[in-house]
Amino acid sequence: MISKKHLKNLSFLIYGLGLTGQSVVNFFVKNNVRNFKVWDDHNKNLYKNKRTSNLVKSLHNVDYIILSPGVSLMKSKNKNNLIKFQKKIITDLDLFFLVREFSKSIVVTGTNGKSTTCKILSHVLKKNNFQPILGGNIGAPVLSLKIKKKNIIIIEASSFQLSHSKFIHPNYAILLNITNDHLDWHVNMKNYINSKFKIFENQDKNQFAIVNRNFKYLFKRKKFAAKLKVPNLKQYVKLKPKLKNSYLKLNMNDENLSFVYELTKLFKIRKRSFLNSLNTFVGLPHRYEIFMKRKNCIFINDSKATSFQSTKFALKNSKNIFWILGGMPKKNDKIILNGLKKNILRSYIIGKNMNFFKKQIRGKIKFYETGTIRKSILRIFSDIRTLKKKNSTILLSPSSASYDQYLNFEKRGEEFKRLSKFYARKYF
Asked: What pTM was estimated for this model as a whole?
């Protein structure tokens, strides 16, 4: 294991100066690691005194290249040079594990449900007298966390972070699920799956891998050293009637909670304590967030649903839906409405890629090309008057990324909530 002292004898190039890249710079400065240079394809003004004047030379000479998760190897301006020195590439997660000073670590990955699962884990552990701290793809980059030795570190790890990681070895590695996503970044499904399985590569026989039942055979075939645990969904469902939390009682949460339950058994948390902890959990914003009820209408902000696989949960759990969708679709994503059409009254397409969504839903459900969230809400209120349906659901679940119209899914969700509240005051 490399210690903080050994870091001073190594040389680094930090490639990408987003939040993660900046956290690496701050970590090096704090620990007196001086032999490092920085590079960003777009921002030439950040850390000018540390910017390399010769990128190719630096890539060749340094011991390690720390690549920010937002940088795609296939899309970077310096693609060929990065690929040439790919063996040197590591991530902030690697640095974190190389100089570890914490009690235990939990790394959670998967296509859907990572943030919610991490938050629930943190909540349950805290309620049972452990000292968890969250970081990674949720909250602060791991190198900016203020950690004490008693802390249990819960890291949400994206496939972007894991793709180039080489040294991570969590005590508990959790793989929730893998569905079609981020193929524009990973190129193909094989690369995407391999990136997720990086969490298991360096684990030893005393550590645990909690793996989705659909991937246990692949886990065994790869002959990882960790102890394999496969959550039993039926075991959790038996406990579910005792839950008093209406948000967590939704079927969309069952699989994620089966993973949480599996982990709590390893932490020797009793069933009653597990359930009592869940009863006080509050759901995350933008994830099937029921933020308003007016007369017979429920308003749900599900802006985090950036693929149809994510949206399916919302469509399954709601009735009489006025559905707002659209944005930047994921590569190879498809909208398959088998068994869901009966729940949808009308749909409203927003964003700059309307043709994609029209082709996917034409002939299946009635739709309007509204373009914006504001126009969608106004049209929905008009349709509610016309259809006179009781117990309607106004749902933003876009099945796509937000970048064609918004900075991120949070901004999209916030605008939906703001406009819904504004126009609801006039309508109801």
From this structure: 0.91
